[in-house]
Design a protein that fits this description.
The complex is a heterodimer of chains A (362) and B (257). Chain A is an alpha/beta fold. Chain A is built from twelve helices and 16 strands. In chain A, strand 6 and strand 7 form a beta hairpin. The chains are: A alpha/beta (362), B mainly alpha (257).
């Protein structure tokens, strides 16, 4: 996958063991080169420490936990994904980072600056989950409005707007009112306003939600392009394949707790694959194949046979054996990914814990 | 900073101008003004005074309707729809946002007043002997009154639902015009408690009668420069106080992306 090649040039993220707080997890920079930075500016694009947020709800104004003890660090130039089920606390975390909701406790630094200072948001581009803009404006007017909010000098404003319209494929719709935009077009113009200030940090809440397959692909390609440009991207999603394709590291949120942060490369080796070879089951018996192959063989026909491998090593071994025995390999498909399994396992564990740990805190 | 406030103000202005409700109310305003020209011949000899009195009152009433209609839902609509989160995720402070919205609505009211005033003066020109430059002071004081109402509606729109904001603003408008009478009545008739209460109401609600010089202007009485200056300071002080309070309330708001 493409993120592997990019990640090799970037600081690594490694999960650290939970520290005292059983539910808090953190990711820290362990290696990688950061160029000399101005005084007071750290090498991390985003630092979140012990973020907590609860909401009052109902007639009795009972306090409902949104997130609790969320801590993570995102190095510059990396892509960090918040993965979690609906209601896990992804959007609340993002809202707290941007100070749209006021955290009960915790510290957030964006490019070294305290997040409550509105100057800290000058280097941030944000796309909400359901982008909604002034319907009375055209796409062009909307971007001019945001350009003014970003205090972009007038001489570069036009060029920047033209550029982002082009990058998001919205040039031909720029003169159309937003009330006439489809959901996918709103998402694209939302991305355009996100990119307008050429921000170092992009915070994207479910950036591919509501898009058709073509739209998803285009957005994915745009994000990959931004990643290759060295932008720091923080995205939230509950769609595992999207995360796998884009992210360098992932934080898994369950019931408001960041239960795990992992480098995605850890999961690449534990993908399982389905290999289809052009020979019957009986023919394989006489060959010098690894002993585990028989156990992993699936019912096939007289002409072809399928073998499932548990990891990349087994895949490599099987392909080498087939090559040595001159057995044609018809296809290799990804059966399931390590992250998906991991996410489901973490989620199941967390659900068990959550039964004893209600979201109502007072 | 100024660029951001002006961007917010212009966007708000553009939104209200493109809003059909605004056009509808503006049309009603013009129809009202035009009707004075039709009705005034019924009172022979006082056409000019009737036209001026009704016209000036209509300008404030229609300004009030636009301010309440647009202002009461302005902030809440953006919070509910979510447009506000993309604005405040940019380097824009919450107080700047409130001030920008206020300026935008003020720009709308000024534009509306200007058009109505031009039409009003045009009609007065048609009634011989009615036209006078003293009406300019009435226009200016009407604008100051609408500016205070604008600040009141913005303040309430940050605290309560649009319907309540509209009701409270209309209530403040009514009490604001009656506050002197309430205080005088309390002082003359009431018990010590009633006197204190009437005093509190007088100081708690802006006294909008300060801006009402219609009768004086229509009957040719002078409006002193001192009165205009004091009314200006009074409106600026109330507006600043209300916007500061609105900013403080809005700073504590939780916005969902």
């Amino acid at each position: 996958m493409s993120f592997q090649t990019v990640a090799t040039n970037k600081p690594e993220i490694q999960s650290s063991p939970a520290t005292g707080n059983a539910v808090a997890a953190s990711a820290t920079v362990t290696s990688g080169s950061i160029s000399a930075l101005p005084e007071g500016v750290t090498g991390d694009a985003l630092t979140v420490v012990d973020l907590c947020k609860s909401f009052r709800s109902g007639f009795l104004k009972r306090r409902i936990r949104g997130i609790e003890g969320v801590s993570f660090t995102v190095p510059r130039g990396s892509v960090f994904a918040l993965l979690g089920h609906n209601g896990a606390g992804k959007t609340t975390t993002i809202n707290c980072i941007l100070d749209l909701v006021h955290a009960d406790r915790g510290e957030v630094r964006i490019m070294g600056q305290e997040h409550k200072r509105c100057e800290s948001r000058a280097c941030v581009g944000y796309l909400p989950e359901r982008p909604y803009f002034f319907e009375h404006l055209t796409g062009q007017e909307l971007l001019e409005f945001y350009a003014a909010l970003l205090s972009l000098p007038k001489d570069i404003r036009v060029a920047r707007i033209t550029d982002v319209l082009q990058r998001t494929g919205m040039t031909e719709y720029a003169g159309r009112r937003l009330s006439k935009f489809s959901k996918g077009m709103l998402q694209r113009i939302g991305l355009a306003q996100t990119l307008l200030g050429d921000p170092d940090v992009l915070i994207l809440d479910e950036p591919m939600s509501g898009l058709d397959p073509m739209g998803r692909r285009e957005v994915r390609e745009l994000l990959l392009e931004l990643k290759n440009q060295g932008k720091t991207i923080i995205l939230s999603s509950h769609i595992v394949p999207d995360v796998e394709l884009l992210a360098d590291s992932v934080g898994i949120l369950c019931n408001g707790h960041l239960v795990e942060t992992r480098n995605l490369r850890e999961f690449n080796d534990s993908c399982s694959y389905l290999v289809q070879v052009a020979c019957g089951g009986g023919q394989l018996d006489g060959l010098h194949l690894p002993p585990w192959v028989q156990a992993k063989m699936q019912p096939g026909s007289a002409q072809q046979q399928c073998v499932e491998t548990d990891n990349v090593d087994q895949l490599r071994e099987l392909l080498a054996a087939c090559h040595a025995a001159d057995i044609p390999v018809q296809s290799v498909d990804t059966r399931r990914t390590g992250l998906e399994d991991f996410f489901m396992a973490v989620h199941a564990d967390s659900d068990n814990g959550a039964n004893n740990n209600s979201k109502v805190v007072s | 900073m100024n660029g951001q406030i002006s961007a917010l103000a212009l966007s708000t202005f553009r939104e209200t101008v493109r809003d059909r409700i605004f056009y509808l109310v503006a049309v009603f305003g013009f129809v009202m003004l035009a009707s004075t020209a039709v009705l005034s011949p019924l009172n022979v000899g006082a056409q000019g005074k009737i036209m001026a009195d009704v016209g000036l009152a209509a300008m404030v009433i229609f300004g009030l309707v636009v301010a309440v209609f647009v202002g009461s839902a302005m902030v809440r609509k953006e919070m509910d729809k979510g447009t506000i989160v993309t604005i405040l995720s940019k380097p824009v402070g919450r107080r700047q946002y409130i001030f920008g919205k206020f300026l935008g609505l003020n720009l709308t009211l000024v534009s509306m007043l200007t058009v109505m005033a031009a039409l009003f003066l045009l009609m007065l020109l048609m009634a011989p002997g009615s036209f006078s430059f003293r009406f300019l002071s009435a226009f200016y004081l009407s604008f100051l009154e609408l500016m205070v109402i604008n600040a009141i509606v913005i303040f309430f729109s940050t605290c309560v639902s649009p319907i309540l904001a509209a009701v409270f603003t209309l209530g403040a408008f009514a009490v604001g015009h009656l506050s002197e009478s309430i205080r005088d009545f309390g002082q003359m008739q009431g018990t010590a408690f009633q006197q204190q209460m009437s005093e509190i109401v007088y100081y708690l609600i802006p006294n909008l009668e300060v801006f009402n010089v219609r009768a004086a202007v229509v009957h040719g009485d002078p409006v002193t420069m001192n009165h205009i200056l004091m009314a200006t300071l009074y409106s600026v002080a109330w507006t600043a106080l209300l916007l500061l309070l609105a900013g403080a309330v809005f700073n504590k708001k939780e916005l969902r992306g």
